[in-house]
Specification:
The complex is a heterotetramer, with one copy of chain A, two copies of chain B and one copy of chain C.
Chain A: H1 6-11, H2 16-26, H3 32-42, H4 44-47, H5 52-55, E1 65-67, E2 74-77, E3 82-90, H6 92-97, H7 99-115, E4 120-130, H8 138-156, E5 160-167, E6 176-186, E7 201-206, H9 216-219, H10 228-231, H11 240-254, E8 259-264, H12 269-281, E9 284-288, H13 301-306, E10 312-317, H14 322-331, E11 335-343, E12 347-352, E13 355-361, H15 362-365, H16 388-391, H17 396-405, H18 413-416, E14 427-429, E15 436-439, E16 446-452, H19 455-460, H20 462-478, E17 483-492, H21 499-519, E18 523-529, E19 533-534, E20 537-538, E21 542-551, E22 568-572, H22 583-588, H23 601-616, E23 622-626, H24 630-642, E24 645-648, H25 654-662, E25 668-673, H26 675-688, E26 692-699, E27 703-706, E28 710-713, H27 714-728
Parallel strand pairs in A: 4-5, 9-12, 17-18, 24-27
Antiparallel strand pairs in A: 1-2, 2-3, 3-6, 4-6, 7-10, 7-11, 8-10, 9-11, 12-13, 14-15, 15-16, 16-21, 17-21, 19-20, 22-25, 22-26, 23-25, 24-26, 27-28
Chain B: E1 2-9, H1 16-27, E2 33-46, H2 51-66, E3 72-78
Antiparallel strand pairs in B: 1-2, 1-3
Chain C: E1 2-7, H1 14-23, E2 27-32, E3 43-46, H2 66-76, E4 80-84, H3 86-94, E5 100-102, E6 110-118, E7 134-141, E8 145-147, H4 150-158, E9 162-167, E10 186-190, E11 196-199, H5 217-224
Parallel strand pairs in C: 1-2, 1-3, 3-4, 4-11
Antiparallel strand pairs in C: 5-8, 6-7, 6-9, 9-10, 10-11
The chains are: A alpha+beta, B alpha+beta, C alpha/beta.
The complex binds adenosine-5'-diphosphate (ADP) and magnesium ion.
Magnesium ion binds next to loops of chain A.
Chain lengths: 730, 80, 225, 80
């Protein structure tokens, strides 16, 4: 076996200090296998060594949270003994190297996190960020990622119901692929990963172990440079067919009451799954590596332990239940092997060819992993800038046409048409709306889900940006009539060893915490992806938030499509006309300076609750949150799907009208109201103290009129709105 | 000039398709199949009479588009 | 009425079709592909999904399952067989229906509500639709591009075996309304005896008004007649 | 014994994938590509030393599963 030294440790991504710490803790020089195991457990991806300190500060509880962070996914109570289980995870680095397989295995990985907890996955979402559309790699990456997500999700038969996709040059060298999944099960049918019961057998099920993805987790913890392509480990190939079998087999086994604990093999494969299970249960684990089903002959203990082959699970069974388990996995044509047992030694013992090849204390790998308090600098907040001189020469109609056809605002059906978003027959709101709604099968209730982030806000003010991302998901849920319950988060950042990046991270977390606390909307799971940098250039801080809410009665929901002509259109919430960091400035006019809009959490709550209530009482015909692109974009998004025009009357003109229409003030909604409901609604608005303003009326003509001064042909706008992806991918 | 191009997964990369086909052949009762690996096959006609030049075109096509060298390997030969 | 739903490894619309059939009081049994006997039933359904991952060719491996011999026997008695999406692909691979389903012309998976015309409303599967009815049903497939040679296509037309055709928003049968490149815009066909139906659209996905159009309802009602 | 098996679409069946690749190669600036047709390639190891018997196994595999003769043709050869 290779003799371990400082240099080899360094090649494994361990610093000199860390290497010395290892020797001190275990009182010996690790052998090569042990070193590999340490490097996997101690890297950023598994140990959260840079982020842990700050993650601990996130609020994680409310009356509906059953399981917060710390398990494969979080669990919330959705009444009637039903629970929803969800999490988001990043697969950024692999997707940049091999977009199809990287994205596909990202979907596969998050699905396993959900069904390992006993839930049948019912909905997938994803949040995607690519470099600028004209960057030479973007088209290839976009096509690969989208078809990878489609390829995996469609095959396994879980609907992909929503997501977001954005282009920005800050992602040229580091795309972001974050995948979220939600599953549903019964409260007393949740499975956890805490191993227990000394002597209980440890079972390996799923696909065979191959030499793929060795050290994927450590790669995800490094910056990219020119040599990345050469260094890349063998990429994992996704096998959705095997995953479908694994899903069904696991759910079948879960009915038999034979499982003590279960955990998927994700990043750092057999290493992290076995160590984490043992560590949580404060037990030891002994594995005979000769029993691990391998794809290739002659795999070394090192390779077996570090392989990231997909579609595998580790299960601790009740003693004596091996045969029942084997029968089920045989039926589904999957590998099954008893590879070891739990011990009372608190050690990880690995045996290969009758020799002990690894003998390490579990705590050395987990509890004693380094935790850093990295240096951070308070981010500099952007100054207010004067937009008037830069904007006033533009025609309002021209700006509208530009916004509606911009890749970030265009119709994205090119993307979601490739996803089976209807399989399982419970998808109520399809992609393209505010939040997706998925009926809880065989019931009259539903959950709603959305993923959001506005990285340009986060760059300019990490604190506000973190807060805003949480609030935007909150708003999206409210606007379909769902009561927001909890979130999951995927924190995508640059290199945390740089104080300014760490400063962004700290402030974003503070912003998220603040919002979650006030909104009673805690974090129940998440993932951190650091080192999203190439040649020293980092991405905008991108804390993607996945929000989940509950709809108690599926007849009380709403969507964003105008329903008929002759209805009144109101804006709920205050409009000042804040242009800093707006789509208009950032994407259309290329003015990237300025501060993002401020946020008042009390108003967020008040307005949100008002909308939910109004939907319940059927006082509104359609509803849409107002966010990126301001009032005008929200209104257009309501006109376009139904081909209904509008007459806008706003008591502003010139630059002020631009501010009013394009400003991105927060906590607002646009709603459509039947004239006969107006009086009741007005009364409610006054009672509840929400601010509102009537801005127009839907009309039969296919035109957008603004103050009888500007007129845009709706059919033209629709054409502009629809063409970008088709032209881009010609 | 006509070429045949073969793209195969690298040895250590999982080939779920080949594996599934292998199993299916077994359950069809066809005996003696040891392993199946699936790849892609292209038949390409090049408008170029000089062998060297034509080969260069095919090679570029393989590297730039046909093969994904992260997980695949290519080879080709002239048919006529 | 009683239906057997065949479950292949990788089927994923098996539950959906069961829920739909049961909504119309059709009793369902789920039959695992390795079984070598079919319980007595009026109808066999091959559901949508990705049997065997759709590896090799869609439906190819499923078509060789043990149970398919029983399905063929069942069909030969004149009893009903329906293949939806992957099920249609399995039926063509089994040769219970002519032709083949190739990769979508645009090379992308398509999940969308599309416009259809009911070309033949005299089959046991479509008798509750009006003649030439214009309907909207979702499709979700990567390989729905129906192919058959000229002679076969001609026969399909002559024998009125074409049941559903893709059309555009104005219900014209043309290229514009053809989502996947199918010959003659074919979305569904029957065998000559009209007891076996294969179709790419998913009627089970549109039987509830609040999920969108409910144009799948007459499909299931037809079975009950 | 090791075989290479080729499955190609019949000439009269349209091959949109091949067509798309043809176009893509063009827009990548690779000149001289006349036509591209895509097919499948299998590398199959047979546990049988007699050539005739091994060939028969491969042929059966092609007919029974690997090729759909409505749209495809197959051919194979021994590699070693
Ligand atoms: N940003 C975050 N916020 C809250 N919880 C987090 C965050 N990042 C990670 N976690 C939690 O840490 C645990 C480990 O996550 P991860 O390493 O992604 O698990 P897995 O082994 O399933 O890939 C999980 O319980 C996860 O929910
Ligand atoms: Mg996990």
């Amino acid at each position: 076996m290779i003799e371990v030294n400082k240099k080899i440790a360094e090649n494994h991504g361990l610093t000199e200090d860390e290497y010395e710490k290892i020797i001190k803790i275990i009182g010996k020089k690790p052998n090569f296998t042990e070193l590999g195991i340490f490097s996997a457990m101690w890297n950023e991806h598994c140990s959260y060594k840079s982020s842990k300190k700050w993650l601990k500060t996130l609020p994680t509880k409310n009356e509906r949270v059953i399981q917060g962070p710390g398990e494969n996914a979080g669990v919330i109570d959705i009444d009637d003994d039903d629970v929803a289980i969800f999490k988001i995870e990043s697969h950024n680095h692999p997707s940049f190297i091999e977009p199809y397989q990287g994205a596909a295995t990202g979907v596969g990985g998050i699905l396993r996190d959900i069904f390992t907890m006993g839930a049948r996955p019912v909905a997938s979402l994803n949040s995607l960020r690519f470099g600028s559309a004209d960057h030479p790699k973007t088209k290839y990456l976009l096509n690969g990622v989208v078809s990878g997500i489609a390829g995996y999700g469609n095959c396994i038969g879980v609907p992909t119901v929503g997501g977001e996709i954005e282009f920005d040059s800050c992602y040229n060298g580091n795309i972001l692929v974050n995948a979220m999944n939600i599953g549903i099960t019964k409260k007393n049918k949740v499975f956890y990963s805490i191993a227990s019961g000394v002597g209980n057998p440890v079972i390996y099920v799923g696909s065979k172990t191959g030499r793929d993805g060795i050290h994927g987790a450590s790669m995800a913890s490094q910056e990219f440079d020119e040599n990345t392509e050469a260094k890349k480990p063998t990429v994992q190939v996704g096998d959705p067919f095997s995953e479908k079998l694994l899903l069904e087999a696991c759910l079948e086994l879960m009915k038999t009451n034979a499982i003590v604990s279960i955990q998927d093999m994700g990043a750092a494969g057999l290493t992290s799954s076995s160590v984490e299970m043992a560590s949580k249960g404060k037990v030891g684990i002994e594995i005979n590596l000769d029993k691990v089903p391998c794809r290739e002959k002659g795999m070394s203990p090192y390779e077996i332990m570090l392989s990231e082959s997909q579609e595998r699970m580790l299960i601790v069974l009740k003693e004596g239940r091996e045969k029942d388990c084997e029968k089920i996995f045989n039926k589904w044509g999957l590998d099954f092997s008893v590879i070891g047992k739990l011990t009372n030694t608190n050690k990880l013992i690995l045996i290969s060819n009758n020799k002990v090849v690894c003998d390490l204390a579990i705590s050395a790998l987990s509890d004693q992993a380094p935790e850093y308090d990295r240096k951070w600098e308070k981010p500099i907040t952007e100054k207010k800038i004067d937009f008037k001189t830069k904007i006033k020469n533009f025609q309002i109609t021209e700006l509208i046409e530009k916004i509606i056809s911009h890749p970030n605002q265009t119709n994205k059906s090119w993307v979601w048409d490739q996803y089976d978003h209807m399989v399982m027959c419970d998808t109520i709101n399809q992609p393209g709306g505010n939040a997706s709604i998925i009926r809880v099968h065989d019931t009259n209730k539903a959950i709603a889900a959305t993923v959001d982030c506005t990285p340009r806000y986060c760059k300019s003010s990490p604190f506000l940006g973190g807060m805003q991302a949480v609030c935007e998901t909150y708003r999206n849920l409210c606007s379909v009539g769902a009561t927001p319950i909890a979130i999951t988060n995927c924190l995508n950042f640059g290199n945390p060893e740089k104080p300014e990046i760490m400063g962004q991270f700290v402030d974003v977390i503070k912003g998220i915490s603040e919002a979650c606390k006030k909104l009673n909307y805690p974090v129940i799971s998440g993932n951190v992806s650091l080192y999203n940098e190439t040649n020293g250039i980092g991405i905008n801080p991108t804390p993607v938030i996945g929000g989940v809410g509950l709809i108690k009665n599926i007849s009380q929901t709403s969507n964003h499509k105008f329903k008929e002509a002759g209805n009144l259109v109101y804006i709920i919430g205050d409009t000042i006309g804040h242009l800093g960091q707006s789509i208009l400035c950032y994407d259309i006019l290329n003015i990237k300076k300025g501060e993002p809009p401020p946020l008042e959490l009390e108003k967020e709550i008040k307005n949100g609750k008002f909308i939910i209530e109004a939907i319940k009482q059927k006082l509104i015909q359609s509803s849409h949150d107002v966010s990126s692109g301001g009032i005008i974009l929200s209104i257009l998004e309501m006109c376009i799907p139904s081909k209904i025009g509008i007459n806008l009357n706003i008591d502003k003109s010139g630059f002020q009208l631009i501010e009013y229409l394009f400003g991105e003030d927060q906590s607002r909604y646009a709603i459509e109201v039947k004239p006969e409901n107006e009086a009741v609604l007005l009364k409610n608005m006054k009672n509840k103290g929400v601010s509102f303003k009537k801005i127009g009326k839907t009309i039969n003509e296919k035109y957008i009129h603004i103050n009888n001064k500007y007129k845009l042909n709706l059919n033209n706008l629709i054409e502009l709105h629809n063409k970008w992806f088709k032209n881009y991918n010609k | 000039m006509k070429f045949e191009v073969f793209i195969t997964l690298k040895k250590e990369v999982l080939d779920p398709q080949g594996k599934a086909i292998e199993n299916a052949l077994g359950s069809l009762g066809i005996q003696g199949i040891e392993t199946v690996r699936q790849g892609k096959y292209f038949s390409i006609v090049i408008d170029e009479k000089e062998k060297n030049k034509a080969e260069k075109i095919v090679k570029t096509a393989c590297q730039k588009l046909l093969a994904n060298e992260t997980i695949e390997e290519y080879s080709f030969k002239i048919v006529k | 009425m009683i239906a057997n739903i065949i479950v292949f490894p990788g089927s994923n619309c098996d539950r959906d079709i069961k829920v739909a059939l049961e909504k119309f009081q059709i009793k369902c049994k789920m039959i695992w592909h390795q079984e070598n006997e079919l319980p007595k039933a009026d109808l066999v359904v091959l559901p949508g999904g990705f049997s065997y991952g759709d590896y090799l060719r869609c439906g190819s491996m499923a078509s060789k399952s043990v149970i398919m011999n029983e399905v063929i026997k069942h069909a030969s008695t004149g009893a009903y067989v329906i293949g939806i999406c992957n099920g249609f692909q399995i039926l063509t691979e089994t040769k219970l229906l002519p032709g083949a389903l190739l990769r979508n012309y645009m090379l992308k998976f398509i999940c969308r509500r599309i416009n259809l015309i009911v070309k033949n409303n005299t089959t046991p599967f479509t008798n509750k639709y009006k003649n030439k009815a214009k309907i909207k049903i979702p499709i979700a497939h990567n390989e729905g591009n129906y192919y058959a040679d000229e002679a076969t296509l001609k026969k399909l037309e002559e024998n009125e075996q074409i049941v559903f055709q893709y059309c555009d928003e104005n219900y014209e049968i043309n290229n514009n309304g053809n989502p996947n490149g199918s010959s003659l815009n074919i979305a569904g066909i029957v065998n000559k005896k009209q007891n076996i139906l294969g179709m790419m659209p998913h009627p089970e996905r549109c039987i509830e008004n609040f999920l969108g159009e409910a144009d799948g309802i007459p499909f299931f009602e037809s079975l009950l007649k």
